């Protein structure tokens, strides 16, 4: 089944809803970041589908062909760069392939893998989201005439942030070392950037850098786990 059968079958985009007619597959493990993109798609006229890992994304792409795919680079079952490479080499090719991350150097890596565009975390402004996608589309899929760049900021559901914290807390309880801990550090870094939670960004970043700097210390791990618990019990307002 194809979400993009023919260009003539799609409603024409407008200045108010420049992504009208598009189906966007978001490959993102964070519920909070995904809710931000859901709101942006809602305001832009696009329909959103979500996959939370590489396996789910590949299963989806085996059935549907979306108009655009936005791939988070840090996923629970591997790197989003692998999926971007697959999408860039596929025939027929998805019209628009974008990457999203808050990590340093991520944009260069994504473009080297074949991404057409990049959306930096935190995801907040509707206009910047629209512009990042429109820049990757052919002229006939862009609204004509001058367009005001919207500066509204979306506010994702705080419960989605709590759900992300619960997920991270469970993994931190079960894993104190190894690749799962590396994933948790990267996951929390991305979620915290999306929520502009600077304290958690710093703690997650310190843990993410630990493998190159030496063994993970109990102090680093305990600090990160403590910050996650603070957000779960509501001592930190979102």
From TrEMBL:
Name the GO terms of the biological process aspect.
Answer: phosphorelay signal transduction system
The record's section on CDD domains has: REC
Which residues are in the Response regulatory domain?
23-136
Q: Does the keyword Repeat apply?
A: no
Q: Pfam families per the record?
A: Response_reg
> Which InterPro entries does the protein's record reference?
Bact_response_regulator, CheY-like_superfamily, Sig_transdc_resp-reg_receiver
Q: What is the lineage of its organism?
A: Bacteria, Pseudomonadati, Pseudomonadota, Alphaproteobacteria, Rhodobacterales
Which PROSITE patterns does this UniProt record tie to the protein?
A: RESPONSE_REGULATORY
4-aspartylphosphate modification sites are: 72
Q: Tell me which UniProt keywords the record has, alphabetically.
A: Phosphoprotein
SUPFAM superfamilies reported in the protein's UniProt record = CheY-like
Key word Phosphoprotein present in the record? yes
What is the protein name stated in its UniProt record? Response regulator
